[in-house]
Each structure stands twice: as C-alpha cells, then as structure tokens.
Amino acid sequence: LKMSWFWLYLPLHLLATTCLCHSIKAPTTSSQQSSKSSLFNFYHSLILADGKETTIHLLKDIPKRYYFVLEEGRVLAPFSVTVTPCDVPIEWSILVYKPPPGKATPGDHNTQEVSKSQRASSVASTIFNYKGNSVETYMGMSSHSALYLLEFLSTERDTHITVYLTTDTTSGHLYPELPVDPRIDVIGIGHTTVTLAWKHSPSVLEHRESIQYCLLVNEKHNYKSLCAAETAIRSSGMKLPPTLALSLSPYLLEPQQVMILSNSELSIINKVSSGEVRQVCVGTRNTYTVPNLSPSTQYYFDVFIVNLLTNASAAYTGTFARTLEEPEPKVTELKDGKVIHVVLDGQKQKFYSLQYQARHKKIHFTFQLCRGQVRVHITRNGKTVASENLSGLRYFSLKGKLLDTYSVQLRSTEESNSSVKVQASPHFHKPLFPLLPESLKIKSFSKLRTCRSVTIAWLGTQEESKYCVYRKRIEEDQIWRELQSADRCSGPESRHKSEKVLCKYFYDLNLQRAVTTETIKGLEAGTLYLFDVYLFGPSGIPVRYHSKVVKTRKKC
C-alpha cells in the first residue's frame, strides 16, 4: 500500500509500534472521538489483508481492530467488507480517518513544518455499524485516499468470525452469488420425507465445475452461515474436519458420524445429543428430497452454495417443515389357532398391529420370523408384558384374566422387507409348530466329501417327525444372496421338484442320539450346492433348517 497523507500526522516515535499490539481493551469508539482516543485505537490494530478471507478470533468483551488504506492516485476507490459471524452475535463497525480542513493534502510534502498538534488532529467518523449474527456486507466508494479502521466485539462469549476485504470489484467474487430470491421452497411433505427446491445461483451457470449446493438438516434451528453450522456441531462434542460437507475427500469420520455415498451424493450424519445433523452435497441440482426423517417432527433446512476451489460459501434463506404424523396402523383381530402371515415394508409400512381378546386365563403366542429383522411388543390391557427382537421361532406363555385384551405390535428394524407368522392360542398342548431340536444347523463332513457325493447331518427330537432334504446347484456369486434372501417360513412347495432328494422319518427318546446323517449322491465334481432340510410336525407346517453350502471335490 502506498503512503497516504495520514502518516504525516502520526507522532514519529509511535510509527515503530504500529501493528505490534492488538486485543487490548479500550473504550468503544463513537462517531466523534477525541484525537487521543482515535490514535490509541489505531496504534493497537492489525493490517487487514486485501482479497483474502481472514479468520479472526474474538475474546469476550475485548475489542479487536484491523485497518486498511485505500490507494492514492485513484479517482474512485471502491471496496467491500464482508463479515461472517461463526457463532454468537457480534458488534462491528467501520471508521474512516479523513484529513482535517486546511491541513496537509497528499501533495503537501513539507512535513517538517507540521506541528505536533496538527499530527494528531485527524478526524475519525463511523460510517457503518452492525450488531447480530447475520452475514453482512458493506460496500463503499471513496474519491480520495483514506484510512479505514474495523472494530469487532463479542459480548456473549469467545468466538470467531471471518472477514473478507476486497478493493478489486472487477475480477469476480470470492463468494458465490445468491439469486434475487434466495428463499428455499418446501414443495412436498410426507411422513418421512421433505422435498425442497430453490432458485439457481448465477454462479452455477458460470462456473458449473467448481460450484455445488450443500444442504444441512437439523432439528434445532436454521443457520445463517456454513461456519456457524460447523461451530454448532463442534460445540456438541464433534470434531469436524474443515468444510467436511463440502468435499468428497476421504476424511476419517468420528465414531458419532455416518457417511453415506450414493447416486453421487455425499451425506454426513452427525449423531449429536439434540438429534441428527445431516450434511448432503447434491452437485448443481436445485431440488432434493430429504429421506429417512422421523414422522411428526419439525426439521430446519439450510442450503449453501459453495465454491469448491476456495471453500467460500453463501447461505440461502433457511426454511423449516414438519413431517406428517405416522398413520395409525391397521389393527387385525387374532383368532384362536389361526396363523397370520404379516409382511412389513421397511420403507412405507414399518408397523403392524394385532389384537386378541382372551377367552382363557393362559394364552400362548407363537412367532416365526420368516425374513428380515422384526421387533415384537405385547401389551395386556395397555401394560407391556413382553418386548424383544425375534429370532427364528419364539413362544410367549402369558397368564391373565378372562376377556383380557392383548395388543401385539410388530415393527421392522431394517429398510428391507420383513415378514413373520403369528399365532395366538389357549391350547399349548396342540402346538402349531413341531417340537424343535436344540439347533437348526446342518453339518457337513469334509473328509466324507467326494467328487460325486456329500454327507450331511442334522439333529432330531424325541418326537417322530418327517424330514425332507432338498439340494440346489448355485454359483459363487449367488451364495450371499441365497443365504440372505431365504424365506425361513416357506416350505417345500416353493421348491422345484427336481431339487427334492428324499424324505424320511426318525426320532430318538435319547436326545444324545437324536441325530441323523444322509449321503447325497449323483453330484458333479467341483460344484457348489445349497442344501436345505425341512421339519414337519403334527400340524403339517414346516420349519426350515439353516441352509448349508457345500462344494464337491474337484479331483478324486
């Protein structure tokens, strides 16, 4: 920066101390200050960089001052100052120092004749002041060289801000531009989704490769800047890398964070004490449907337009919306001994309610988990009597009074579909499902494998039952899908006739000997096979053992 007239009025012994000290508590400047107070503030200031975003840390009740000087020799000197509070509201102001009437001008260089009183006679005036936590920009134009002082003060607590000064208004903007109407529109609300739309930023049309939109979702309030949002997340105990939501770089996440990358979208979910804070970057699309929200919950939505090259951002005007209430689940009546097959859609219908009125004091509920993950919650006359995650077959024997009302609520605990069979009956001596062995695992014997046969074994019970064995040839890439997608409630009727190997009856009163083996022959060498065993009880309803995958030997 070139020397301006103002330097001629500084006491010579103080020139060396300029910019060495800052953050010294001093009275807040007014529009008309004394010369002594003006000089004191100036001497304890730092130079504010031109064309660069500066991060400034503020201590509570201690003002911090920066200055800049406009160049000499320019007819008109435009400039702008943008201040972004990153937490609590702050106070900030801009003061300008002008030459006193009749004193030296930039062309008057006879400094030896300037008296000491004249050196300290510059006039300072406040041209702008603001208090709040919004992003504010001051744009000014000066027709002569001048010195400007910026003062920042936080009265609530220690905080930090960013300040951007530029005197070059012709080579573009650091911050992306907002549209004339920067509001976010809510164009759709569901039970677990909210659809948003916003006007395109002019910056997207000019710099599509380096500009993208990022969305922030939380349950507390809107944020007026991206740094304010990140500060709030950190204050909740998180440790966020800088501009985590703005980059697709492989940052290491904290244990409380979940990253989801799908369809070219990066989602960061922060598990904070007050709920989830989600950050999603959606490229240059200006519509987005926020998924997986909770019903009947108010959410706040903020959209930021981000320059990926500089990490500078601008905030749209935030909005909020309340998701719709979860519809009351349809209640189905349970009848004595009748089996109901319930299918739960993990995306749409996660809940299913059943009701049963007792005609006996003892009631037995039977649940067979067919697919997925399901949690059961049973109440009697409004009071909880059982609640747990289902696994395989589960029996509940409950004792109450005649005409007690039992409510059974089933809930899917995963996004994919789940299903379960349910029966309520007072007659436990006539069970719907067969007596089960200690384990439903199928064992194969590696030493007994050949190129053409496989030997398997499974446990039986003390009750004579029918067992049917099925086989299916599969490929390596089908193993996971076959094991995960298997319907554990489906019987042999769902299998192709060619897959059936045999059916047999057996039992043993001594459980230690209640085990049977079977050698399946006629297989192909070096081939994978999926084996299933079905157990049939007196009611004829099957129970499927856990599938077993075995590969025959390639060479014998």
UniProtKB/TrEMBL annotation:
<dbReference type="GO" id="GO:0007399">
    <property type="term" value="P:nervous system development"/>
</dbReference>
<dbReference type="Pfam" id="PF10179">
    <property type="entry name" value="NDNF"/>
</dbReference>
<protein>
    <recommendedName>
        <fullName>Protein NDNF</fullName>
    </recommendedName>
</protein>
<feature type="domain" description="Fibronectin type-III">
    <location>
        <begin position="176"/>
        <end position="313"/>
    </location>
</feature>
<dbReference type="InterPro" id="IPR036116">
    <property type="entry name" value="FN3_sf"/>
</dbReference>
<dbReference type="Pfam" id="PF24354">
    <property type="entry name" value="NDNF_N"/>
</dbReference>
<dbReference type="InterPro" id="IPR003961">
    <property type="entry name" value="FN3_dom"/>
</dbReference>
<keyword id="KW-0732">Signal</keyword>
<dbReference type="Pfam" id="PF19433">
    <property type="entry name" value="NDNF_C"/>
</dbReference>
<keyword id="KW-0677">Repeat</keyword>
<dbReference type="InterPro" id="IPR045805">
    <property type="entry name" value="NDNF_C"/>
</dbReference>
<feature type="domain" description="Fibronectin type-III">
    <location>
        <begin position="434"/>
        <end position="542"/>
    </location>
</feature>
<keyword id="KW-0964">Secreted</keyword>
<keyword id="KW-0524">Neurogenesis</keyword>
<dbReference type="GO" id="GO:0008201">
    <property type="term" value="F:heparin binding"/>
</dbReference>
<comment type="function">
    <text>Secretory protein that plays a role in various cellular processes. Acts as a chemorepellent acting on gonadotropin-releasing hormone (GnRH) expressing neurons regulating their migration to the hypothalamus. Also promotes neuron migration, growth and survival as well as neurite outgrowth and is involved in the development of the olfactory system. May also act through the regulation of growth factors activity and downstream signaling. Also regulates extracellular matrix assembly and cell adhesiveness.</text>
</comment>
<dbReference type="InterPro" id="IPR056225">
    <property type="entry name" value="NDNF_N"/>
</dbReference>
<dbReference type="InterPro" id="IPR055271">
    <property type="entry name" value="NDNF_Fn(III)_1"/>
</dbReference>
<dbReference type="InterPro" id="IPR019326">
    <property type="entry name" value="NDNF"/>
</dbReference>
<dbReference type="InterPro" id="IPR013783">
    <property type="entry name" value="Ig-like_fold"/>
</dbReference>
<dbReference type="GO" id="GO:0005576">
    <property type="term" value="C:extracellular region"/>
</dbReference>
<keyword id="KW-0325">Glycoprotein</keyword>
<feature type="signal peptide">
    <location>
        <begin position="1"/>
        <end position="21"/>
    </location>
</feature>
